[in-house]
């Protein structure tokens, strides 16, 4: 795994969405209620629209273009089902959040 800096952990708060850019990859970091921070590719699996301006209510993320709804804990599509956002592993290292964009489990189509 090749972790690299994503952002300062002080930028993250529960129930918030934080957009970021790492190696020309747009990321959204969301912290769902009762969960832990998660990092996803910011491209909606529907048509690649950026989710950085999506509506995150603490549990679901809604695509700003076509209203697709994703579970904030898993990235799974809720409406419609059968799709999911691409997740990247993150870790806390001191005061920084780090991300692994090379992780094989974050396989983009």
Give the overall pLDDT as a whole number: 92
Q: At the third CATH level, what is the topology name?
A: Rieske Iron-sulfur Protein
SS content category: mainly beta
User: Which geometry do the CA atoms define?
Assistant: globular
CATH architecture: 3-layer Sandwich
- Which homologous superfamily in CATH is the superfamily? Rieske [2Fe-2S] iron-sulphur domain
Strand order of the largest sheet: 2-3-4-9
Q: Count of helical segments?
A: 0
Portion in helices: under 10%
Q: What's the story with the biggest beta sheet? A: 4 strands, antiparallel
Organism: Uliginosibacterium sediminicola
Keywords: 2Fe-2S, Iron, Iron-sulfur, Metal-binding
Pfam family, one: Rieske
Protein name: Rieske 2Fe-2S domain-containing protein
Molecular structure report:
- InterPro entries: Rieske_2Fe-2S, Rieske_2Fe-2S_sf.
- It comes from Uliginosibacterium sediminicola.
- It is a single chain.
- The strands form three sheets. Strands 2-3-4-9 form a four-stranded antiparallel beta sheet, with no helix packed on it. A four-stranded antiparallel beta sheet has the order 5-6-7-8, with no helix packed on it.
- It starts with a strand and ends in a 10-residue tail after the last strand.
- The protein is globular.
- It has a single domain, classed as 3-layer Sandwich (Rieske Iron-sulfur Protein), CATH 2.102.10.10.
- It has no helices and eleven strands.
- Strand 2 and strand 3 form a beta hairpin.
- It is mainly beta and 109 residues long.
